[in-house]
Automatic annotation (TrEMBL):
Keywords: Membrane, Transmembrane, Transmembrane helix. The chain crosses the membrane at residues 17-39, 68-88, 100-120, 149-170, 176-196, 236-256, 276-299, 320-346, 373-400, 420-439. It comes from the Bacteria. Signal peptide: none annotated. The keyword Transmembrane applies. This is Fenitrothion hydrolase.
Amino acid sequence: MILAHGLHGRSDLPVPLWLALYTGAAAVLVSFVVLAFMWTKPRLAGADAGRPLPALVERFVDSRALRFGLQAAGLVFFVLLLAAAWAGTNSSFTNPASTWFYVWFWLGVIALSLVFGRIYRVANPLRILARGLAPLLYRPGREASLDKLAFWPAIAGLAGFLWLELVYPASDSPRAIAVFVTLYALTMAVAGAYYGPKWFERGDGFEVYFTLIARLSPFGRRNDGRIVVRSPLNGLLDGPSHGLTPVLLLILGSTTFDGVTRIPMWPDFVDPLTPFWTAVAGTIALAATVGFLSAMYVGAMWLTRPYLRKPRRGEPPVDLYGAFAHSLIPLALGYTIAHYFSFAIFQGQAGFLLATDPFGQGWDLFGTAGTGINYAVLSTGLIALVQVGAIIVGHIVAVVSAHDRALQIIRPDYKKTGQYPALALMVGYTVIGIVLVSSV
C-alpha cells in the first residue's frame, strides 16, 4: 500500500536499541530527580500566564478578514477532498484524496495547531455547515444536555477514524474515505445545528484533539482575552481536564497499535487471513492495545490515591484520573511525531504530485505528471533520531507537567514518594514507545 509509514527495522536506528532504551528511561528518571530538588512549589499559572503580543498583531489575528480567509480555506479543502474521493479513481496511487485526508488534514492540522494554536476551531468547515442548518434545527437550551455526554461523542468519532486508518484492510481506498468523511460530516453538521456551536467542543473528535494539541502552542489567549506568547507548560493547563483522559489514551493506544503492526510477526499472522478476519483481528488488537495502556494509567493512578491530600473545607474531591490528563497531551504528540514523521514528509509530497490530475482524467495541471516522491530529503538516521527524540522530549514535558500538578494534590510529606507510580508509568510508556518505533 502507498500509505505505509515509519521505520521498517531495528537496523535503521543510528544507535543500538539498548542504548536508545537506556537513554530514554534515564532522561525521564533524571528529569524527575532534578524536579524533585529544584521544583518544590507549583509554578504553572495556566491561562493566566503569557506576554501579550503587540496590539497590531492582535487586531490582525482577531480580524474578520483572517477569520473569513481561514473558513474559506477550510471549506474549499473539504469540498475538493470529497470531490476527488467520490469522483476520482479508487486508487491511492492515482487519487490525491487519500494523502489529502491522512497527511494534509490529519497530520497537517496537528502541525498547524502546534505552531499557531486553535486554528482549526476557526477553519472547521463543519461549523459552517452547522450554521447553515441551525435555523431549521436549533432550539435554545439544548447545550446543557451536552455535559452529560462528556467527550464520548468525540471519542466515538476518533475511534471510527482510527479504525479506518489502522484496521480497515482498504484504508487507502478513496471511496472508503469518501463514505467516512460524508457520514462524519453529516453527523457533525446535524448535531452541531441541533445542539449549537458547543457541540463541536465536545462531539467533534477532530476538533477536540486538535484543540488539545493547540495547548502546546507558544501562542494562546489569556483569561483577560489578550493573545499571548507563553510556555507550552502553561498552555497545557488552558482548558478542562475532566473527561479528556479517555480521548488521550485512545490516541496513545492507536499509535502504539500502529507500532505493533510493524513488528514482523504481525504481518506473518494476518497475511494468511481473509480481509474480513484481518479486520476482526485488527479490531481486537487495537482495542487490546488501548485497553493495556489504559490499564497502566489506571493502575498508576490507583497506586497514587493513598498519597492524595484531603480536600479543604468546601473543596470538591480531587478527580485523580482527570488531574493528570493534561500530562498525556505531550505523550500523545510525541508518539504521533514518532510514528508519522517520515510518513508525513514522504507521502505528503504525493498530495501535490497527484493533485495535477485529481479526477483521473489525464490532466497535468501543475506539470508534475510522472514525477516521483523524493526519498532523499531525509536520511534514515535523521528519521530515527526524530522518532526517539520525540518520545523522550514528550515524556520529559509530561513529567514536568505531572510533577507540578502533583505538588498541588499530593500530601506534602509524600510529595516525592507519591509520584513514584506516575514516574513508573512514564518510564514504561517510554520503553514501549522506543521499542515499537524500532520495529523489533
